[in-house]
Amino acid sequence: MTKIPAWRRYLTFWRTPIAQDVDDELRFHTSMRVKEYVARGMSEDEARRAVAMRLGDMTAAQSECVELSEARERNRRNAAFLDALRSDVRYALRGLRARPGFAAAIILTLGLGIGANAAVFSVVDRLLFRTAPMLRDAARTHRVYLSYPNPNLEGNFILDGVPYARIAELSHASKSLVRTAAFKSDRFTIGEPEEGRDRQIAGVTASFFDFFDAPPALGRYFNTQEDAPPNGETVVVLSYGLWQTEYGGRADALGAKLRIGERVYTVIGVAPRWFAGMTPDTPPAAFIPFSSYAASFTYPDRDGLRWWTSYDVGAQANMLVTRKPGVSVAQVRDELTRLTRQRWGDGISQGPPDLQPTAVVASTLAERGPEQTSASKVAGLVGAMALVVLLIAGANVANLLLARALRRRREVAVRLALGVSRSRLVSQFLTETLVLAVFGGLAGLVAARWGGPALRAAFLTPSADNTVVTDARTLMFVGVIVVIAGVLTGLAPAWHAGRLDVTRHLRIGVREGTLQRSRARAALLVVQGRIVGSTARGGGSVRAKSEQRPQSAARLRRGAAAGRRSQHARHSARQRAHRRPLESTGRVGTPGSWCRTRCGRASNALSMLRPGRSGGPSGRHGLDPLHQAAGNPLECRFPGVFRDDAHADRARASDRFERRPRCATSGGRQQPPGRDAVAGSRRDRPMPDAAHSRARRPPTRRERTEVVAAR
Amino acid sequence: MPAPKVEVLRGTLDLLILKAVSWGPMHGYAVAQWIERATNDVLRIEEGTLYPALHRLENREWIAAEWGRSDNNQRAKFYSLTPKGRAQLRVETRTWTVYAKAVFEALDAPANPS
Fold first, then answer.
1. N or C end of chain A: which has fewer CB within 10 A?
2. Burial code of A675-694, b = ≥16 C-beta within 10 A, e = fewer?
3. Which H helix or E strand runs over A268?
4. What is the dihedral of CA A44, A45, A50, A55, to 10 degrees?
């Protein structure tokens, strides 16, 4: 952290408003001048008048000073903020470097979640959200479909293509549209037959290019005359990619001849880079007039109607329209429907009167057409799955962070005691998780780079610009996710730091932290369990946990108990693991290593014990009276404390007790809540004294009911 | 009453302020006093330009301000020279000397300088 100049500290110390400061400064000046004049022999009043005259109007100077001071204050605040941010980030990085395993776990978890979302987003975005590049007035531009009543089945059937004749007619008659166009694409062989390649070729009307803000990179686009039925002119506009690969990007490509299908075309222009018409997924290699395109196909000749005049046997095309500003989608739909039906019964139309179509004005994206496509359905599902993965990852990370925050309570308490403000601490915790999330996002991008191509291959046709990492929208999406994930996962620990009870945690010490329970952690575990359960069919993990401890079935019913339960299970598993070698060598009951560590914890708690005061911090529940006498001198000296007020005391302490460490003293044993007295005493047998353990008896009925009542 | 004074040229005021506070922390009044005395009351300091100039210099971090108590125990803002300001003072002193010398030479020069 850079050193703050000494004067700035004074500034914050005084913290007088800026205008007041400037006023004070000038008033001081005036008073000094008056003194000076008085010293020269003027009377006080004369001096005042003289000074006022000398100074003249100071308001301009004053406001200038205030402005300058404000700018200074702003800069100072920004600098302080940046300083704080920099030191927070540095502190966070240092903390992560100190615990590389922890950091790696979080970064990997977040990375997977974010990576999955980035990969899915890059696909879903293209399929469902992103309009074609360079599209003008994208919000007012639509694709129009015709929906026919289905005489045999329920509902309508919607045709993708609209007859060219109808498009021409509607464009001519409609009053609510700025422009209309027809487009269609198909694979054609380009080049001479012996070296021809199949490429996607789009046939578009001349008006198609008006929909885009895309002046040609070279030459020009074709005009209406070149796009006139029946055959159109043989002119072609190359895509930028084809121009680069086939003509090396040379300007003399204009005028070159290119065979497309059966006819030879003349190159008249090159579309700009990234221009892909209305089909960015399958960018056309070249654009030819729609008339030339349609003329490449043969249509059945019926009643002398040709492809450009027939409604049913003519060329079909996708219809693109732009609404006039202020005209609603419904108005356009109604008008187009009306116009379509007007001509339905006309001589050139063959449709039966009960099959009158309705116009559907829909998104320009084919996948978001009037009917949900299978690709969009699958993409939606995969997206939902990815979100669930992110949720689980987030919950896991939040849990890890919370666990860490609980362990760091003493550190936080010390820093609070040293005078660090809570808001600074909170912002520091948030910075830490944000740093983690940023790293997670980077890891996610790497994951998406590897996993994304597979996904895209499944949904999109590969094309040159389809790389996740270079895609600005996906990057932006990842950025947003990173911030959200960082803030959400950081909220819980930050909140924890913000409401810490300083004195208590300073006094209790660091060792106590690990076993304390947090309701937030438990809730997170529960939520996570639910998500995993509902996604992985059957919630096996939750059930497994409950089966581990059948004796505490009553507690299982309590909602937030799941976290404790898992901790508990882990704890007892650890104990079992420690005990197993002891049992196998027949040394059950000798103070093993686990016993010693627990005793260490116990002595810590004992140092806090104030005998005679009810509600002292040592756990006294489930004390075995026989063991009291043998071991703990305190309990021998104050038997009444532990016996008489037991009921009231337990009822009061039970709540607190839940959050206290379980510990075993060498004499009076403490029983963790929910543990069966018999099982507990066997497990926690503290004394090597063989005679003593022989004298043990199962707890009386009364004692057992006491234990239950205490809960 | 003081004799008619010469207005301080814009641009030189900054230099004079820097020179004034180079002697130690001073409040605005003391700066004005110092300049007037140091120039034998020839230069007249306009308060309307002095204080904005002080704030501008403070924003450029050539001088630093600190609230303190004046000799007669009034709350006053004291300005002092920062290391950056000291360097600036050196540069501006040199520039000003060169400039003034050049102007003098021009004023003394004949109609057709060699």
1. N
2. bbbeebbebbbbbeeeebbe
3. strand A263-270
4. 90
Instruction: Please report the beta strands in A113-255, taking only residues with DSSP state E, as ranges in sequence order.
Output: 141-149, 156-159, 162-163, 177-190, 197-204, 218-219, 235-238
Written as tens digits, the pLDDT of chain B (114 aa) is 445 566 777 678 899 999 999 999 999 999 998 988 888 888 878 888 889 999 999 998 899 988 888 887 888 899 999 999 999 999 999 999 999 999 999 999 888 876
Structure tokens at A165: 């004749």
Beta pairing class for A141-149 and A316-323:
antiparallel
Long-range contacts of A351-355 (CB under 8 A, 24+ apart): A351/A311, A351/A312, A354/A149, A354/A151, A355/A148, A355/A149, A355/A151
Which amino acid is residue A62, in one-letter code? Q
pTM greater than 0.95 (yes/no): no
DSSP string, A483-550: HHHHHHHHHHHHHHHHT--HHHHHHH-SGGGGG---HHHHHHHHHHHHHHHHHSSS-HHHHHHHHH-G
The CA-atom distances, in angstroms, between A498 and each of A124, A155, A425, A579 are 39, 59, 7, 40
∠A204-A212-A371 over CA atoms, to 5°?
Answer: 70
Q: What is the ipTM of this complex?
A: 0.87
Are A422 and A416 in contact, with CB atoms under 8 Å apart? yes
Q: Residues of A with CB below 8 A from B58's CB?
A: 68, 72
Residues A199 and A243: beta-carbon distance below 8 Å: no
- The verdict on B53 touching A (C-beta cutoff 8 Å) is no
Give the E-state strand segments of A324-390 in sequence order.
358-362
Name the residue type at position A608: M
CA-nearest of A606, A610, A614, A611 to A649 is: A614
CB neighbours of residue A657 within 10 Å: 21
Compute the distance between CA of residue A509 and CA of residue A653 in angstroms, rounded to an integer.
21
Assign A566 to helix, strand or coil.
helix
Long-range contacts of A541-549 (CB under 8 A, 24+ apart): A545/A569, A549/A674
Q: What residues of A are in contact with residue B59 (Cβ under 8 Å)? A: 68, 71-72, 75
Q: State the smallest CA–CA distance between residue A426 and chain B in angstroms.
A: 32
| Residue A79 contacts B where some CB pair is shorter than 8 Å | no
Pairwise CA distance, residues A247 & A249, whole Å: 5
At A662, the amino acid letter reads: R
Q: Roughly what angle, to the nearest 10 degrees, separates helices A164-173 and A329-342?
A: 120
Say what the alpha-carbon torsion angle A75, A76, A77, A82 is, to the nearest 10 degrees.
90
